[in-house]
Each structure stands twice: as C-alpha cells, then as structure tokens.
Write a structure and sequence with these properties.
InterPro entries: CRISPR-assoc_Cas6_C. Helix content is about 30%, strand content about 25%. The protein is an alpha+beta fold. It has two domains: about 10-145, Alpha-Beta Plaits (2-Layer Sandwich), CATH 3.30.70; about 155-285, 2-Layer Sandwich (Alpha-Beta Plaits), CATH 3.30.70.
C-alpha cells in the first residue's frame, strides 16, 4: 500500500480521562511512563498466562495485555512493531488530563484500554518513599480523531517539541535530524501493520530525502534529563533518560517526508514514543513569494 492510501484507512481514537487536581505533575516527563506501568498492571489481571510470560496469547481474540505489552513481528531492519498507542498528559486548570491515543487495531479495544487506564490510575502511581499518587477520576470520554490533512509541504517546516524527543545509537543518547526522519518512516511502516496493511515506502528515496533536508536542518534547544524511577518511583537505582527539547526546522520536505511528518503529529517521533516522548506540533512556514 502506498502512503497516500494509508491516509484513507488511518484510524486514531483518544481516551481522555480527567483527574481531580494534580495538574502540576503533567509537566514531568516520567508521569506518562508511570501511567503506562499502572495501566499495564491493571490489564495484566485479565491476561493469559502465556501473555504474562511474554509468549503468544492463546485467547481468541488475544487479550488486550498482549497487544499492550508484548512484542510483535519485526518491521524494517528487524525492528519490532511500535506499540499502537501513545500517552499524553496535560494540565486542565488545576486538574490533570490523561490522554491515551490508540491506532488501528487497538481502537477496537478502546473499552478494555479505557477500563485499564482508569483502574491503573485508581490503584495509584509510585511516588517514592512508599507514597502513591492516587488521582481521582472525574470523567472519561472517547473521541475519534480526524485523519491528518494532506497538504503541500513546499516550504520549510518547524517541529516544536512538546515533550523531549529520544534517540540513541550504541545505547548512547543522540540527536540526529537525519535518522529522526528515517526512523519516522520505520515507525509509520509499523503503524500501518496495526491497520492490517503493508506500507510500501521507497527506502532509497526516503534515505536520500532525509539526508538532503536533514543535513540543512536548524535546531535550537537543549537536553532534558529525567529518571525512569526516581522522583515518582520507589526504585533504588533509577535509570537516567535523556531527550532533546526545543524546535527543529527542516527545509521544504516534499511529499514523502511531509506526509510522514503529518502522521507523526499523531504518533510522535523518535524512540520510546508510547510513554510520551517525541510529541510535537508541526508548523508550515509561509511562502515568501
């Protein structure tokens, strides 16, 4: 399937949960990670023994925990399929808005995902020192997202990162505007699998376009550091995480990379996106002519 045809079948649905108070914690990068962990524990209660062990689930249909947690068949270059969701947190006045965005096949499990999210929040998030953050759920709704608009990308574009974008090479954090784009191609290819199709991207064209515009990219920002564990965890040895904040400007990307960036607004970009990193707004600069 070509990229334009993927737009025609693209599905994204949001589960939005409003929690009483705690709006101030929305800005902490590790909070979506904690929510993901809490939701996973809740979904595990209804999982098969095989899924809990990381094996193929024998249930028909497979349990939601299997889809949420376990690795699926690899895509480009032996990479495993991306998880079919991302988690976002935002302040809503003094309250906390938690958004779980589902893609493709996962949209059919919205009820189970929503129940797991609420149960996980109710059970609480580790806050260190034996304490738990227990947001009280006020409301929940499901909203189907419109398909991103396919618009010409013939002028420079700017990615404004709302959460740090993560990349690594040889297990060390990096920030590389070129591989950020080729990685997005892999990510969207994986998301296409969750829509039941195989996306046919011209790998040579993507690599050449990424090198061309990535080599001329401009960036302003800085590294952000947080711990997976630590401030909101009782973990004794928290793991350091690093991501890049700020903005990134590419020259006119053209149709292929432009389409990927338009979908990437919904899927996020970079590594470990399911737990919140790589969220961005996409701006199109005006044509000076």
């Amino acid at each position: 399937m070509c990229l334009d045809a993927l737009f025609d079948i693209w599905r994204a649905l949001e589960i939005r949960v409003l929690c009483d108070g705690h709006g101030q914690v929305a800005r902490y990068t590790e909070i979506p990670q904690k929510i993901r962990g809490a939701m996973g524990h809740a979904l595990r209660a209804g999982a098969s023994d095989q899924a809990v062990a990381g094996q193929q689930c024998p249930f028909q249909p497979p349990c939601t925990y299997d889809l949420f947690h376990n690795a699926r068949a690899s895509v480009t270059g032996g990479l495993e399929m991306p998880k079919p969701f991302v988690i976002q947190t935002d302040p809503a006045g003094e309250d906390l808005l938690v958004t779980l965005r589902l893609f493709g096949e996962a949209c059919d499990r919205a009820h189970e995902f929503g129940a797991g999210l609420v149960a996980g929040l109710r059970a609480g998030l580790e806050a260190g020192g034996g304490r738990r953050l227990r947001p009280r759920v006020l409301a929940m709704e499901q909203v189907a997202l419109p398909v991103p608009v396919r618009r010409p990308m013939n002028t420079p574009v700017v990615l404004n990162f709302l959460t740090p974008v993560m990349q690594s090479r040889a297990k060390k954090p990096i920030f590389d505007p070129v591989s950020l784009l080729t990685g997005l191609g892999n990510r969207i290819t994986g998301m296409a699998r969750w829509h039941g199709v195989v996306l046919e991207l011209d790998a040579a064209e993507l690599k050449a376009d990424a090198a061309r515009i990535g080599g001329l990219a401009q960036h302003e920002g800085q590294d952000d550091h947080w711990h997976r564990g630590g401030r909101f965890s009782a973990a004794k040895v928290p793991r350091k995480q690093t991501g890049r904040c700020g903005w990134l400007r590419y020259p006119a990307p053209g149709d292929l990379i432009g389409r990927l960036l338009q979908l990437g607004v919904q899927t996020h970009i970079g590594a470990k996106c399911a737990a919140g990193p790589g969220r961005y707004m996409l701006g199109l600069e005006a044509d000076p002519g």
